[in-house]
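Why this split exists: single-chain examples teach little about how molecules sit against one another. For that reason, every record in the complexes split bundles all components of an assembly together and asks for one structure covering all of them. Below is a record exactly as it appears in the raw files.
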Amino acid sequence: MEPLLSEIVAKYNYWIYVVLMMIGFYAMIGKRNLVKKLLGMNIFQTAIILFYVSIGGKRGGGIPIVDKHAAMLHGVDATTVVNPLPHVLMLTAIVVSVSVTGVALAILIRIYRKYDTLEEDEILEKIGR
Amino acid sequence: MNTPNLHLYVLAAPLLTAFAVNLLGRVSRTWIGPLVLGALTFSAGGALMTLLHVLREGAFRYTIGNWQPPLGIELVVDPLSALMLLLVSAVALLATSSALKSVAHELPGREHLFFTLYMILIAGLLGLVLTGDAFNLYVLLEITAITTYGLIAMGSGRAALSSFNYIIMGSIGACFYLLGVGYLYILTGTLNMADIAQILPGLDAPAAIATAFAFLMVGLWVKMGLFPLHVWLPNAYSQAPTGAGAMIAPLMTKVTIYLMIRVMFSIFSPDYTFLAHAGIQAGIVWAASLAIMCASGLALAQRNLRRMLTYILVAEVAYMVGGVWLANGTGITGAILHIVSDAMMTLCLFLAAAAIIYRTGSLEFDRLNGLYRRMPVTMAAFTVGAFSMIGVPPTCGFFSKWYLILGAVRAGHPEFVTALLISSLINAVLFFRIIELAYFQPASDLSRSEPQQAGEAPLLMLSPLLLSAVALVAIGLGSGPLIENIIRLAMPPGFAP
């Protein structure tokens, strides 16, 4: 028990992302309501975004905004700032996630207008009839 | 024009046209046709010149905006990506010509919206083929996916629900890919494919590298619809508007298979992919063999032409995955040749389906009676496509299947040979059933009473269909030079056939 606990504490960011991802995955696969599936997808994507953001972190690292002149003269000590690249990548991933959500919501509106429900079982029943 | 920049114009033409189509198409519908056809003709011509340039001068890398790699994004133009560039732009050009008619027929008043998404999708596919950056690839993958979701949702009937299911599955695939890239970034600190490939062999972290590889592979397999991850594909592709289906079906899966080849050989090395985990390679060939059998079996159960074609497509995906994973030069040659020939024959069959649906409004089997009499040219082209799917010489389907089988024999995988042969037999059953219906059965009274039935589809739909049928035979007859001059150069080092 003891080594397992210290393992979890030492790598807590990975554990958080795995747990979040599994919650999202369950909602996408297991839930029968289309909006819940979509929310599950968002949780899934957020888990990956948090994973990326956490890997840029450093113990004692500051905000990666530096004085240009000082940086030109002396260079930047990489240990004093967190790695900004994963964060910037995630800006793009957030844009992707938002646009996918937008398209999905628009499609959900169309589904609702057509079938008057967002429960997958009821929709399939209406299609079957 | 400066040739080293040409591939960038190939990429930019459909992207910029997308906006022009949206703006000018609002003013007048007549602008749309010339604009999209012009842009895609330009792209196809440029892609051809790029390919000739690469064959003459050798592969080159291109940095956008002079941001040097590994920090900047670079485009890689090698024989394989130039070949794919030409394939994508040529297929897109042919499909677009047919789509112009069918979209005006199915989605009147929304053509400009349709073609905006359509052109962005083409630009995304061309970008996927060229990019040399792992994260950029994710972004382009999502650009193509989002436009595809929109295009599919424009279809009628259950299309919106199918599109939603595709969104859920597509996002899972893309997120897995992104996660794999994240692991690679933690390990190497770079996102440039060539840079990752240089750093990876020196690392001592087998578990982490294997995890990254598994995430990348599973992500792409979901995206390409490899059985049993295919559940979203038949619904989505068969309910899309016919114009969209005729382009999405041939290109999306093939480009994703190209991406799998890229990840396997450009990010990882063939040695790593095939040798690091003994048993995995054989296991995947087994899985692909089973996938071919199951998908072919499911195709037998369909009663609608387009749904049947989508299940055949799922089987074809497994052909190519299995071919690449055979881990010898012949198998990989077969897989790359099959990317080209499968794109063309899927295009041919989907264009024929589009022409039939344009005239008769239905693709149910019991409505196909007597089609040879009413649409002889369409059905002749359909027959060529069907023969290529079955693998009858001299169509290109025969030659790529030949290489796949030869590769499987050399690699010692009798199960893959068996699966290919049985799948070909099932294809023969499937297509001869349709040919029998359409050729020998007299037209039913039900369909004869409808006035719209008579005659061929308009020239704009018929000419790309005939061109694709001719291309099937031409690629088949020219497959020797094609392999000798292009595909041989595209092989990963040490895998010459």
